[in-house]
Amino acid sequence: MNDVKPRLVISTGAGMSAESGISTFRDSGGLWENYNVMDVASADGFARNPKLVHEFYNARRRDLLKALPNAGHLALRELEKYYDVYIITQNVDDLHERAGSSNILHLHGELMKVRTIEEPTRIYTLDEEHIETTPDSIDADGNHLRPHIVFFQEAVPNIERAIEWTQLADIFVVIGTSLAVYPAASLLHYVRRGVPVYYIDPNPAPVSADVTVIRKGASEGIAELTRILEENLRGE
After folding, report:
1. How far apart are CA 232 and CA 228, in angstroms?
2. Most distant CA pair in the chain: distance in Å?
3. Pair 80, 149: CB distance under 8 Å
4. Across the strands, what pairs with 175?
5. Residues paired with residue 145 on neighbouring β-strands, in sequence order
6. Which of 73, 96, 106, 108 is catalytic?
7. Which of 79, 125, 152, 221 is in Cβ range 3.0-4.6 Å of 42 for a Cys bridge?
8. What is d(CA 174, CA 186) in angstroms, rounded to the nearest whole number?
9. Integer Cα distance of 223 and 55 in angstroms
């Protein structure tokens, strides 16, 4: 008997966490919580005013601690009963982790982590009691810390691994993204020919005719996707 589960690879964007109350700069025309995005989320902005950037991400962490995984996050965890699920997310929150998903790759960094400026591979996880950082924050060796966020104008170090995951997908799903942020939007181009592709978004971007579009928010859309996948499994 073959017990190997099909590999389900899922790419999630800001719409995945919107129902949990996590805001995105795309909601307000280039402003993020009333800040210009390039002031708080770019390499130039960090170089120009690191104090502002630290304060901004301190506030985002405080917001995150109040948020909970939504029904969509929990439904993706449940799909692990039937599929080998891999999640590639553009989101910097930890809601996939808190929902219990097993395999998660963050393309744009992680809000609850910091890293040293001098040595980017030295990464530290913050706890709920210590979420505030400043330009003066250092590690035990005296190295200055910065948010573990991939700023605009910086390379996306996990994109190669994301491409590898995508190329191995038996089913590929995109959830809650405008398909406008690169290189994440390019992942669709690496799906093998003949692999089913689903796109969940209430306002989907134009995609090719072979993509099944589910015009719903994340939770409702994932519930519909789950029904479709269950029907396909029963039909095998």
Report:
1. 6
2. 60
3. no
4. 12, 200
5. 116
6. 108
7. 152
8. 11
9. 37
Mind listing the pLDDT tens digit of every residue in the chain (236 residues)? 457 899 999 999 999 999 999 876 655 555 566 788 899 999 999 999 999 999 999 999 999 999 999 999 999 999 999 999 999 999 999 999 999 999 999 999 999 999 999 999 999 999 989 999 999 999 999 999 999 999 999 999 999 999 999 999 999 999 999 887 778 889 999 999 999 999 999 999 999 989 999 999 999 999 999 999 999 887 75
What phi and psi, each to the nearest 5 degrees, are found at residue 39? -80, -30
Amino acid at 53: V
**What is the distance between the alpha carbons of residues 68 and 56, in angstroms, rounded to a whole number?**
20
The yes-or-no answer on residue 130 being catalytic is no
| Unique residue bearing structure tokens 């919107």 | 18
- Encoded tokens for 172: 């590929």
**What is the rounded distance in angstroms from the CA atom of residue 222 to the CA atom of residue 236?**
21
| Strand pairing class (109-116; 123-125) | antiparallel
